[in-house]
Design goal:
Shape: globular
CATH architecture: 3-Layer(aba) Sandwich
Keywords: Hydrolase
Distance between the termini: 28 Å
Strand content: 15-25%
Helix content: 25-40%
CATH topology: Dna Topoisomerase Vi A Subunit, Chain: A, domain 2
Order of helices and strands: EHEHEHEH
Strand order of the largest sheet: 2-1-3-4
Number of domains: 1
EC number: 3.1.26.8
Number of strands: 4
Largest sheet: 4 strands, parallel
InterPro entries: TOPRIM_dom
Protein name: Ribonuclease M5
GO molecular function: ribonuclease M5 activity
Length: 113
């Protein structure tokens, strides 16, 4: 696979949920919670030439990681779930599909209904 886009999420449940929706080759990487600047750089070193998309939870942990991304990876594109859902994992499929579509991802059409 020749994925050009890399989607960064917090956990495995987020990854599984988004894998069901996305209809194109996309590498989905988990931060597995809190990360340091060093760990983040180490995690993403192999993806420097790709488009990075950050899709984290709308909670304190997600915001801490997002802040780190904004500081360390200026070109990363940030996607936001609605605060009412708090987590990517609990956001309805249709809402996730809409967010991804608006960011330029191809999604399976059934998730937009």
């Amino acid at each position: 696979m020749n994925e050009e886009k890399v989607l960064i999420v917090e956990g495995g449940s987020d990854r599984k949920r988004l894998q069901r929706i996305v209809a194109e080759p996309v590498e989905i990487i988990c931060t597995n919670g809190t990360v340091s600047p060093y760990r983040l750089e180490e995690l993403l070193e192999a993806y420097e030439e790709r488009e990075l998309y950050v899709f984290l939870d709308a909670d304190e942990s997600g915001e801490k990681i997002r802040h780190l991304f904004k500081r360390e990876f200026h070109s990363a594109i940030h996607l936001y779930t609605e605060k009412v859902y708090k987590e990517v994992e609990t956001t309805p499929f249709k809402v996730l599909a809409t967010i991804l579509t608006e960011a330029g991802f191809k999604v399976h059409p059934q998730f937009l209904l």
